[in-house]
Design a protein that fits this description.
about 850 residues, 7-stranded beta/alpha barrel, Immunoglobulin-like, ten-stranded antiparallel β-sheet, 13 helices, about 30% strand, globular
Length: about 850
């Protein structure tokens, strides 16, 4: 058989056999076993490639090749020789096959960039067809990312035709920015059973009699395996018969070259849904993943700032190691939460390892950037804040500092107040500190201020002694309905239910009925949610505790404690705490209402002990029907009601006339649905680890023993809710979500002293533009800046790099990703693709 496929003649049909070995590095096994399977599979594939004429083996995932390089270098050399001979094809080109819904757009860029750089350096190849065969759905944002990374096609399997109706299996997939990419759904899935290849091919050929070319994936998996001798003989047998089909061992690229792209139908949505339970399962992994994802990008920015200022070397290797931790944990059986408990433990270990590396880099850069900041004046406690965003940030922050010694004078209390130099820039109040020492010692301040873009800000507090009777105290209002208001909005809490009865902005009501309901939905032990499209059947609801229950849950010595009470109050914000219960679970809800502004913060502390149930926190709006939208990977997606969906840092709902918009920002969840204008955020499930449904088995878990369930125990969730005019909210929400997910770095410390603070890293004149990444080039000293326009119109603005005394004009369309680079040697700006290849002939090649 011919390795190189040819275009079929008008009388000839061609079947492109793409042999691969779907090899999960972890799933029902740990990574050590996955490593062993990779070594065995690649050795088997090499043997067949070397001994069978015409056979081509395809494999992707740079991670697995890195394992081979580390643990069997001689095997890698054999594979390199086979690649040069055209008998082994590097497929896909990514670091691994990640979940294709939950990672951010920039994470997808790094999956591709890391993988393609590895394959280019080791094999001299750049695949043109991206491959995610086992991912449980695919973000529409991938289209633009793939196009700007050098791809022509996309090969996937899920969701199949039972879950997603496509116009054809070969189609043009349209991205948020209007760009298109040829895509193919391999409906017969990615693997085969040993010894069953003959029947599989015959069935597949019979199903495609009207087609001139077809692609069939095959190879033993999920635990490696690849080709077998018996199946290769079966292929030879069918190929020698007069079936009317030319059967060849081939590659995805060869199949895509035969497609008629001009007549292919278009599809302009994400490729979803399938396995909607994965949007919520294994919540601790998802929470740490979101944190590392954002801390990594923030770490790149602050270390770049310090290196450009000449204060430290740019830590490429350390950043790369943390990035590898992140990318590994995005694997499609890790981040979605479908692996065994041992894998969950390992993923949490990897995520924490990445966070520790990034934390050390950020702290090192932070203290370097204190250069030029004045030292503390007598009695002053400085607080230094680094803003990692290119726009001013006006927000509420908290910080703690430690007096020199505890106050032992029982007649007075030390009150933190802004230093006289900062009283006009700061509004502050004191709140309970993180520790539980019943003495006048540690101080926690809550304050509102505006931070300039991309630089360090220095503030300061002093301690003023006040009489103990003048110490701030909490007063509980009378009445059953508590209402709090400022110049632009008001909120009402019903003490009988503990829920939010009203939230009005500029006189417009954004609550229908009561907001903050914690609904319990029917669920099962399947972490994928293989057989459902939504979690819509309510079986219960958290209810307000009695005073006796509240006292027991809070661990206080009194027999009774009001379940709804004010726990913080001052000129910055008021915090109202409510305690709820459902069967064996408890929920503490804290509503923080600001003295100025529209944004209310919700903190939920959930002690979850349910099984086969899902917890949703709900906000009913008066918008019926509601138009729901949310953040996707480099895009904004519109969602149908009554289905479970996934969004990233924010979701929103508006009325059909789109004159108002309620937005909800989060920093750790993905799943949600919208029913009759009610946003219902999916917080927790309790499935079994790798609880895969099996045909003929009524129960997912064994019925003769105790099985630990995912996500039991204590979890904390935070949301920021704001209503307002439609276009104003839509233009601001991406920037606000960026601040909540990449918060400024705050440290109370005493700088060495100086009079000339360092210039800012960057700023952008139109805050509607997002700078999603700011880093040094992978193989150069270029300053690489990734921009994204999440608004509805084209924007012309200017980007400034004060630290290098340079800047450039930017024009960027709606939903467009644009990558700019600055070469300090030639002092020139130019555009690159996502792989950092220069798009203008005049720019200097990196060295």
């Amino acid at each position: 058989m011919n390795i190189e496929p040819t275009m079929p003649h008008h009388f000839q049909k061609t079947l492109f056999l793409v042999c691969n070995a779907h090899l999960d590095p972890v799933w029902l096994w740990t990574w050590e076993e996955g490593l062993g399977a990779a070594l065995a599979t690649f050795r088997t594939a090499v043997r067949f490639c070397e001994t069978r004429e015409g056979f081509v083996f395809n494999h992707n995932e740079a991670l697995l090749y890195q394992w081979i390089e580390e643990h069997d270098p001689s095997l890698l050399k054999k594979i390199q020789a086979l690649v040069r001979a055209g008998k082994w094809h590097i497929m896909g080109g990514w670091y691994l096959q990640p979940d294709a819904n939950l990672p951010s757009g920039e994470s997808f860029v790094r999956q591709i960039l890391t993988g393609r750089r590895y394959f280019s350096s080791r094999f001299g190849v750049e695949p043109r067809v991206a491959v995610n065969l086992d991912s449980f759905g695919h973000s529409r944002g991938l289209v633009q990312i793939l196009k700007k990374s050098g791809y022509d096609g996309y090969l996937f399997c899920r969701p199949d035709g039972k879950w997603l109706n496509l116009p054809a299996d070969d189609f043009l997939w349209e991205g948020y920015d209007g760009s298109t990419l040829t895509a193919h759904r391999a409906g017969d899935h990615y693997n085969s059973f040993a010894g069953k290849m003959e029947s599989r091919i015959r069935r597949y050929l019979d199903s495609g009699k009207t087609r001139k070319q077809k692609l069939l994936l095959w190879g033993i998996g999920d635990h490696g395996g690849g080709p077998s001798a018996a199946d290769l003989k079966a292929v030879d047998k069918i190929a020698s018969e007069n079936t009317g089909w030319k059967i060849i061992h081939s590659t995805p690229e060869s199949y895509f070259e035969t497609l008629d792209k001009q007549s292919a139908p278009r599809f302009s949505k994400s490729l979803n849904p399938w396995a909607v339970g994965c949007y919520t399962s294994m919540a601790r992994v998802k929470q740490l993943h979101r944190r590392l994802e954002n801390d990594f990008l923030r770490g790149e920015k602050i270390t770049l700032h310090a290196s450009l200022a000449g204060l430290m070397d740019y830590p490429r290797r350390d950043l790369q190691e943390a990035l590898h931790d992140l990318l590994f944990c995005q694997f499609h059986d890790c981040l979605p939460g479908t692996s065994i408990a041992e894998v969950e433990s390992y993923i949490l270990q990897r995520l924490n390892h990445g966070l520790e590396r990034i934390n050390r880099l950020q702290v090192h850069a932070f203290f370097r950037l204190l250069q030029g900041q004045p030292e503390a004046r007598p009695g002053e406690f400085p607080v230094l804040i680094y803003n990692p965003h290119p726009f001013p940030v006006d927000d509420i922050f908290t910080a703690e500092f430690q007096p020199e010694e505890p106050n032992t004078d029982s007649s007075r209390w030390l009150m933190p107040v802004p230093h006289p130099d900062f009283q006009e820039a700061i509004i502050s109040q004191v709140e309970k500190e993180s520790c539980n020492i019943q003495a006048d010692q540690r101080k926690r301040i809550c304050f509102r201020t505006t931070l300039p873009p991309g630089r360090m800000t220095r503030l300061g507090w002093v301690l003023e002694p006040v009489k103990i009777q003048d110490k701030p105290s909490l007063q509980q209002p009378a009445g059953m309905i508590w209402t709090f208001g400022n110049k632009t909005c008001a909120i009402s809490i019903n003490r009988k239910t503990g829920r939010i009865q009203s939230y009005r902005c500029d006189g417009f009501e954004f609550v229908m009925s009561e907001a903050g309901r914690a609904r319990i939905m029917k669920d099962n032990a399947d972490p994928w949610g293989m057989h459902v499209k939504s979690f819509s059947r309510q079986t219960g609801e958290f209810a307000l505790m009695t005073p006796e229950q509240s006292a027991r849950a809070s661990g206080v010595s009194a027999c009774r404690l009001p379940p709804v009470r004010i726990i913080e109050n001052g000129p910055v914000r008021t915090t109202i705490e409510s305690l709820f219960f459902y069967r064996d679970s408890t929920l503490c809800q804290r509503v923080r209402f600001p003295f100025t502004g529209r944004e209310i913060e919700i903190e939920l502390i959930v002690n979850w002990n349910e099984k086969d149930r899902m917890l949703k926190w709900c906000w009913p709006t008066p918008f019926k029907p509601g138009i729901c939208r949310g953040e996707d990977a480099y895009g904004t997606q519109h969602f149908q009601e009554n289905r479970e969906w996934t969004a990233q840092r924010w979701m929103a709902v508006s009325p059909p006339e789109e004159n108002r918009l309620l937005t909800i920002i989060n920093d750790r969840i993905y799943g949600f649905d919208c029913v009759d204008g009610e946003l219902r955020l999916s917080l927790l499930r309790s499935p079994a680890y790798s609880g895969h449904p099996v045909d003929g088995k009524e129960c997912i878990v064994r019925q003769d023993r105790y099985e630990t369930r995912m996500d039991t125990g204590t979890h904390v969730f935070r949301f920021w809710i704001q209503g307002g005019p439609f276009h104003d909210r839509l233009n601001r929400i991406a920037g606000e979500a960026a601040v909540k997910n990449q918060p400024p770095i705050i440290v109370s410390c005493n700088p060495a002293g100086g009079k000339d603070p360092l210039p800012a890293l960057f700023s952008i004149e139109d805050p509607g533009i997002q700078i999603t990444a700011m880093k040094k080039g992978e193989d150069s000293n270029w300053v690489v800046c990734r921009l994204f326009n999440p608004t509805l119109g084209r924007i012309n603005t200017r980007l400034h790099l004060p630290v290098l005394q340079t800047g450039t004009t930017v024009e960027i369309d709606s939903m467009e990703i644009k990558t700019l680079a600055y070469d300090p040697l030639t002092e020139t700006w130019f555009e690159t693709d996502l792989m950092e290849n220069c798009m203008t002939a005049s720019c200097r090649k990196p060295t």
